[in-house]
Amino acid sequence: MFNTLCVIGVGLIGGSVARTARVQNLAARIVGFGRDQDLANLQLAKQLGVIDEFYLDIAAAVAHADCVVIATPVATTAAVLGLLKPHWSAETVYTDVGSTKGSVLAAAEAVFGYVPDNLVPAHPIAGGEQSGVSAAVEGLFAHKRLIITPVAGTDAGALAKVQAFWQGLGSVVSLMDAQHHDSVLAATSHLPHVLAFALVDMLGHKDEQSEIFKYAAGGFKDFTRIASSDPTMWAAICTANKQEILPLIEQLRTELAKIHALLAADDYAQLFATFAYAQTARERFLEQFERPV
Amino acid sequence: MFNTLCVIGVGLIGGSVARTARVQNLAARIVGFGRDQDLANLQLAKQLGVIDEFYLDIAAAVAHADCVVIATPVATTAAVLGLLKPHWSAETVYTDVGSTKGSVLAAAEAVFGYVPDNLVPAHPIAGGEQSGVSAAVEGLFAHKRLIITPVAGTDAGALAKVQAFWQGLGSVVSLMDAQHHDSVLAATSHLPHVLAFALVDMLGHKDEQSEIFKYAAGGFKDFTRIASSDPTMWAAICTANKQEILPLIEQLRTELAKIHALLAADDYAQLFATFAYAQTARERFLEQFERPV
Predict the structure, then answer these.
(1) Could you tell me if A150 and A103 lie in one domain?
(2) Per-residue model confidence (pLDDT) at position B245
(3) What is the three-class DSSP state of B24?
(4) Are residues B172 and B227 in the same domain?
(5) Cβ neighbours of A188 in B, within 8 Å
(6) Which burial class, exposed, middle or buried, applies to B32 when counting CB atoms under 10 A from its CB (0-12, 13-18, 19+)?
(7) What is the pLDDT of residue A210?
(8) Where are the coiled-coil regions (chains A, B) (predicted)?
(9) Residue ranges of the alpha helices (H) in chain B?
């Protein structure tokens, strides 16, 4: 599909893009780019065969690349676009993997004054709480949804190439506008992460005073898995999408106040109805999760 | 260990007690008791070999039993103790599996006027979101914690027998008072369940308005697993332990207000510090979860 694929940021996601692109034969050559402090990770990526070569110099990294994947944390998108700008090529397609898409469009506008027509923002709904190239796996995107958020000026040819690339990686691709993406993901991903961090922050302090974690069970383990996610990445995602997340936090506080009131009033019937509705709603989610297409 | 083990309520937990007791040779004969509406489940339990016989009549069920395990939802404990009272035997030991222990002591006091010295309340910290005997498995309690909450008058011999029984089922047994148990479990189990139900109740209504669940990922799946738990059981647990749960819901609302304020004020440093503290605290939990003894 491509002669040279350049991955900016060879971590869990970027590394998995590279590994899968290799196996699926989507690029003849795969190179990585990182900063000086990423040297050890890039050396490991090359040693593991995830990439063929790496560069700490952006000009060398993107030379001859016909596809560039920006796979760095969302807070760095503007800086990365700033680095790419002097070398931006109309012959190349650009995509990213950021968890917030309004922020990517804003970064492009800040750097270029507009969104380049060959920048096709994307968000693979896949990942894990681990980070770094050692966590990267082939097949991470298989049967997982990926959302592309084109703008009015997006070039149809670039869109088609980027869509085909992500489908080649195994993704089930949907298109929607960036604002809708950010609203949906705030609910299904960002709010749950905030909640998991909030709960474990609160209980962690209790655990320091008197041991409680030793009596926590498997349900607690699953419920708090996402609180093991990278705090740098998540503080950045929350900041980038705060307009959507803030009202959801307020709605959840209202929901908790509702349950508090039901429980305080011994309104068993309504408490049961709330829990039963949630149980049914989760089954609806599970059915869709297990049959994503 | 016992000649006849009687399990009151042959569901996920009661059935797993029976299956494991059989494999571990803890009882020569295992019988089950249920209500008329439990007939199909009891027939299935017998058919699966989980129990040797079942009874819908309490007198027949507990005749010759030297150990009775009450494995019905916490809301039914007083009713079950009321059934057992006319047949209560000083030669028998009694234990239960309720997720709240203050409520079990209160039920005993309501029925007997005191806590019988051979009733040894217990709570196996194990389970799952499934229910019924078909979900019961041998080994459910292996390497899982179990908390026994004796009272001042608990008979030492009964306590020793019940403790040995649960250890024989594979549990790692701790002793603590019922109030402390209820406080710890409110934090590590009841509050997370309330939170999962609250989140999925809120998002389920959003999903009805515009599809959001189809874009939810594996993190959401794990985070909401406990929202698939039995709403009857959980509405009862919350009611039984509301004195502990209500203040925790308030504390969590305060915690969410704190994160809301940090995000609204773009206080990245404190937001990061909160998330990073939570990440570290979860690692502390995981280490203990993986090495429970």
Answers:
(1) yes
(2) 98
(3) coil
(4) no
(5) 203, 212-213, 215-217, 220
(6) buried
(7) 87
(8) none
(9) 12-23, 39-47, 58-62, 77-84, 102-112, 156-168, 178-185, 191-209, 218-223, 231-240, 242-264, 268-290
Question: Tell me: the pLDDT tens digits for A164-189?
Answer: 999 999 999 999 999 999 999 999 99
Give the domain-ending residue among B160, B176, B192: B176
Do residues A161 and A186 both lie within one domain?
no
Q: Are residues A144 and A75 in the same domain?
A: yes
- pLDDT for A293 equals 58
Interval A87-107: pLDDT, tens: 999 999 999 999 999 999 999
Q: In chain A, how long is the greatest CA-to-CA distance?
A: 68
**Contacts for B218 with CB less than 8 Å, ≥ 6 apart:** A126, A128
Among A129, A184, A229, select the one facing B215 at the smallest CB separation: A184
The pLDDT, as a whole number, for residue B227 is 94
ipTM for the complex?
0.89
Q: Are residues A159 and A209 in the same domain?
A: no
Kindly state whether residues B49 and B103 are assigned to the same domain. yes
Domain boundary among the residues B121, B154, B176 is at B176
Provide, as residue numbers in chain A, all residues whose Cβ is less than 8 Å from the Cβ of B289: 213, 216, 221
Say whether both A136 and A35 belong to one domain: yes
- Whole-number percent of chain B with pLDDT over 70: 99
